[in-house]
Amino acid sequence: MDEMSKTSRRAFLRGSAAVAAGTAAGTVSAQTPDPAITELQDWASYLGAGVDETPYGLPISFESDVIRRNVEWLTASPISSINFTPIHALEGTITPQGCAFERHHSGAIELHKDDYRLMINGLVERPLVFTYEDLERLPRENHVYFCECAANTGMEWAGAQLNGVQFTHGMIHNMEYTGVPLRTLLKEAGADISLDKWVYVEGADASSNGRSIPMEKALDDVLVAFKANGEALRMEHGYPVRLVVPGWEGNLWVKWLRRIEITDRAVESREETSKYTDVYEDGVARKWTWVMDAKSVITSPSPQMPITHGAGPMVISGLAWSGHGQITRVDVSKDGGITWETARLGKQGDTKALTRFYLDTEWDGAPMLLQARAMDDTGYVQPTKEQLREQRGENAVYHNNCIQTWYVDVEGKAENVEVS
Amino acid sequence: MSKFLNIFLPAASGTALALGLAFGLAGRDYNKSTIESLEIQLDQANARTSAAQNTSDAQNEVVQALQDRLTTVEANLAAAASQIGSVAEPAPLKADTYQIGRLALSEEIAAWDVDVLPDGRGLPVGSGDVFTGEEVFADQCAACHGDFAEGVDNWPVLAGGFDTLADEDPIKTVGSYWPHLSTVWDYINRSMPFGAAGTLTADETYAIVAYILYSNDMVDDDFVLSQENFADFEMHNKDGFVLDDRAETEYAAWRTEPCMKNCKEEVEVTMRSVFLVETPPEGGSNSVMNSATIDGLPSFSATGPAFIPAATVAPKAPAATKAIVEEVSAEDQEAQLIDDGKKVFKKCRACHEVGEGAKNGSGPHLNGIVGRTMGSVDGFKYSKVFAAALDDGLVWDDEALASFLEKPKSYMKGTKMAFSGLKKASDQQAVIEYLRTFGE
């Protein structure tokens, strides 16, 4: 028997644990009855939980590993740090709030709606203060948008680092936001909205994270949001009100939004000079790199999601997104970028929102170098790490939207690798 | 005249609103009613155009630009509407304001609007010298940033790193990297110290900034920084930034039809993951060095992998052992508590070391902490409240530790420890048992 068929057979046997094995191809025929079917099970006999037991539900205990995780050595303190969305274990496109990544600079704060105030001042006719209730009286919109930290995949500039898509690509979430367009509030205050003006936004927490947004973007699609996925924002995502800046780096999505100031220039706060800027090889830094370029990644199989069923039909599943607009196409390669197949989009995603893609394929049990490559409606094609490094060197920290490679071995295990 | 037109018309802001609308609407999905409302706006603009004929040339240009943009928007909308059936409409922008919100008082604006612009606007009156700065820095900042702004552990380095920006690992400090002095003042004033933001006076902030400049060898020790000389100060890297140029350097080249077949001759794995990541059930993650090498991995060509490596033989599963259910001994319970404490202590490890060779970090080392006099670790710079506790001879007994761990800031008002506390009594007890295992 050659290596190949041994492998497939073993993998197959493992996949059919409780039943006797059939042949390596075709429908399995069981030789002993499956007790899960033939024996009366507790859950089919005893009573389950009553409707008064779980006023607000969490995932069933069997899914307790589908959680945000942090990497302790990344930062000096978990209070000024980041954790990662378990994107390997999620499907579709909407990220449940409870496992959507968090990034705080001085911790997540508890700010009651009753204590919430939003001020608009600066170059306005009428400096105003809004309460939370005020915001709910203004016309609102619903949009699904992704929020990606500019540092997502940042570690990978230095080569393949952490073995898990949660850790390489998990600084992202995708929610349906409900909020008031920022332009509505600007108009209420009679803001000077000439295009050479800036909108400085600031949070209420101890970090008072502040960023400057050019007027053109502020008038376009920025939302002052108070709900996500149909319910109140979570504390860690800025309850009760956060800014949503579609397609732009997550640091601009100021949480616990407390102040909007119209200015005649960018404030150039700490988060837009010393951070969220990238030094290129010549020592010159790029600033105001707001847009998150098109990117995609295969979430399964991936290091945390090995193939456990052996050779045969399988689904390669992944996510794609672009801060410039809609994802129009995703190609998948199984040989490290020599040959590409166009994947099926699960559903056309909204503009600046996650799109799910699938390659419904057959695994022959041989090793693979899996890659995905996204295209958006500007015609932009997601670059390789080589292309990015040619442009930017290796000292960048942010905006790494390179094509990711997973090496899948004959056992179906996947590993984060870099390829020639 | 409505308020809408009030802000619609004056030359500068009026154009901007029209342009703003254009930007807001271009490329979005609209239906007929939106187009109609824009037609009304266009009519309004037309009316204003006639009115504006009589005004200056400059205003005529503005109105013309405005009209052009609205025409473009209308055309875009018509095109979009022809392709789209029922779509989401944007929230309406009322012609008048909604009169929602109340006027902000000047005291309120003064309290919140404290940001400082690169040209120094927003700075309060005040001053601070290097020597005062050194004292304040030692007291408020050095726990994380080091006495000489060199940075402790993973906390930011604030000094040095000059001429390293083109090196392999650039050292980006206030001195080597920050383009504006305003940013330093603004950030310290609003966001620092970590865990006690907003508590510095203006003079203290000036003094700290002066000391950071001194620690970067950018000023002499007799330097005094104030709102007077602030704007004159030029940072080393002030010209070190250019605007985002991806549109020219990358987009132009990368908006092409991608290759689908025979895109490369051969592909090899050049690097494997540096860290394997364990994801324990209690949360977090453990990074473990990956010992695997690229040897033995196949290269790939258009015909697939060069060879199929043999599967690693799965280790034989140990024979199933009967679950032994015995009464848990007191000893085991103790061991379990210590083990639990070790896990909880992960929350403390960023600042506190324990065990052999434990050193002071952002917080004092905790060897022998149970039963020790408070504030008594040599070489650690305590906050005032712990210095006082030492003077009073207070001792870290179990009860004191548990209370402190529960709510550090309430139990020791003024502590520099930023940690918010362990809510569960079981976690507090577990950590104390764990710490008890480390003697002096």
UniProtKB/TrEMBL annotation, chain A:
GO molecular function: heme binding; molybdenum ion binding; molybdopterin cofactor binding; sulfite oxidase activity
Alphabetic keyword roster: Metal-binding, Molybdenum, Oxidoreductase, Signal
Pfam families noted in UniProt: Mo-co_dimer, Oxidored_molyb
Signal peptide limits: 1-30
Domain Oxidoreductase molybdopterin-binding intervals: 111-268
Biological processes annotated in GO: sulfur compound metabolic process
Organism placement in taxonomy: Bacteria, Pseudomonadati, Pseudomonadota, Alphaproteobacteria, Rhodobacterales
Membrane spanning residue stretches: none
Keyword Oxidoreductase: yes
Cofactor: Mo-molybdopterin
SUPFAM superfamilies: E set domains (SSF81296), Oxidoreductase molybdopterin-binding domain (SSF56524)
The name this protein goes by in its record: TMAO/DMSO reductase
Record domain Moybdenum cofactor oxidoreductase dimerisation: where: 286-404
Keyword Kinase found: no
From TrEMBL, chain B:
UniProt entry tagged with the keyword Protein biosynthesis: no
Pfam families: Cytochrom_C (PF00034)
Ranges of residues in domain Cytochrome c: 128-216, 336-439
MF terms (GO), sorted A to Z: electron transfer activity; heme binding; metal ion binding
Domain of life: Bacteria
Sorted UniProt keywords: Coiled coil, Electron transport, Heme, Iron, Metal-binding, Transport
Coiled coil: 35-83
Name of the protein in question: Cytochrome c2
Organism: Nereida ignava
